[in-house]
Structures are given as C-alpha cells and as structure tokens.
Amino acid sequence: MRKEWLRKLGVIFIPSLLFVAMRLLWTTYHKKYHFINEPIVGQCMAVTWHAELFIAPQVYRKLRQQQPTSAIISQHFDGDLIAKTLSFLNILPLRGSSKRGAKSVLINAIKAIKEGYSVMITPDGPRGPRYSMSDGAIVLALRSNLPLMVVNYQAVSYWQLKSWDQFVVPKPFTSLDIYHQVLYIEGMEKEEAKKYLQTQMTTYAL
C-alpha cells in the first residue's frame, strides 16, 4: 500500500521537476544541427532510442512545433513518468508495449494516424535490450506509408545512468551534435526494414 501511494505521489511531482530540469539544461547547451537529408512536412513516425529521451523529444518539438503528436509509452511506472513529462511538450500518450497492451495500443496508434497525428516510439523500449529493434515502428510505418523521422545526438560531456538503456543526461553547457534524418521504407519487407532502421539509428547514437 505504501509503495502504491509513493508511486502516485511520484507521478504527480517527478514529471514536473524532470521537465523543468530538461528545459533549464536545454537552454545551456551549445547545439549544432546536422540534417542528413531534407526535413519532412506533415505526419511521420518519430523514432529515437530509449537512452536519448532526455533530449530527442525536445528536438522533435522544436523542429515540429505545430504537428499533433502521440507517443507509444509502456504501462510500467517509468512509463507513467515519461507520459506525464511528454505531456508538457504537448505529446499525448498511447499506453502499451510489446508485452502489455500491444494489440490495443497498435489499434489506437492507427486511429491517431488517421486523425492526422504523428506517432513517436522508442524501438528498444520499454525494457530493451539497448539498441534492439522491436516491430512496432516498422509495422506502423509500413501500414500507414509514413516516413520515419530519426533523431539522435552526441554530447561532449554527459552523465550516464547504470540502467538497462544506459540513459544519457548531457551536462550543463556541453556541446550537442544533433542528427536528423528521414528514412523511407516503402516496398521493403519487415525484417529488411528493421535492419535498415537499426543500422541508421546506431550510426549517429552515443
């Protein structure tokens, strides 16, 4: 019972504090953008590694300020924290994962796409292994014929947590190289597309 109440309190207070920290640190970074190819206008599947969630959603919202967006987020406690934090960036949650609620979240993601939303997903979430590639982003992209928008970054100086994803938090006033690329997978088989996406995402990852 106590643990349950502590988690409820955590979901109320932690995301607000985390978002403030994200935004404050963001203002101190020296940011250099690298556009590997032409940016897209309109809907997309936005993909980033779980370890890069401190920065990637902020990059996405800066580049696509007006695009309605939902994010597929796990039903675990850490997913609750991520969902509430992303809501401050006007990114709405679609709750589920490959193990819990997969079918329902896929249906809801397809509905969101039909309503004009882009969908954000971490292919190696919610539990890894790090830099592994689940089917979700590829299945949705192939089914909806949407391009994949990939955001990675590299930081000169950073903290790295001892979690399964080795979550990265760039230190204040460090330099960030931010990489943006758009991938098209129409006509590919699922496994071919997964391998292609994994290769491209790891090219510019930390």
Task: Offer a quick outline of the entry.
The protein has 206 residues and is of the alpha/beta class.
Output the radius of gyration. Answer: 16 Å
Distance between the termini: 39 Å
**What proportion of the residues form beta strands (DSSP E)?**
15-25%
Kindly report the average pLDDT value.
91
Number-wise, the strands total 9
* Helical amount: 25-40%
Question: Can you tell me about this structure?
Answer:
By secondary structure, the chain is of the alpha/beta class. It has one domain (2-203). Helices cover 40% and strands 22% of the residues. The chain contains six helices and nine strands, in the order H-E-E-H-E-H-E-H-E-H-E-E-E-E-H. The strands form two sheets. It has a seven-stranded mixed β-sheet, with helices on both faces. Strands 7-8 form a two-stranded antiparallel ribbon. A hairpin with a 7-residue loop joins strand 7 (158-160) and strand 8. The termini are far apart. The relative contact order is 0.20. The mean pLDDT is 91.
Give the SSE map.
Elements: H1 2-28, E1 30-35, E2 45-47, H2 56-63, E3 69-73, H3 77-87, E4 91-95, H4 102-114, E5 118-121, H5 136-144, E6 148-155, E7 158-160, E8 168-170, E9 175-183, H6 190-203
Parallel strand pairs: 1-9, 2-5, 2-6, 3-4, 3-5
Antiparallel strand pairs: 6-9, 7-8
Helix pairs in contact: 1-3
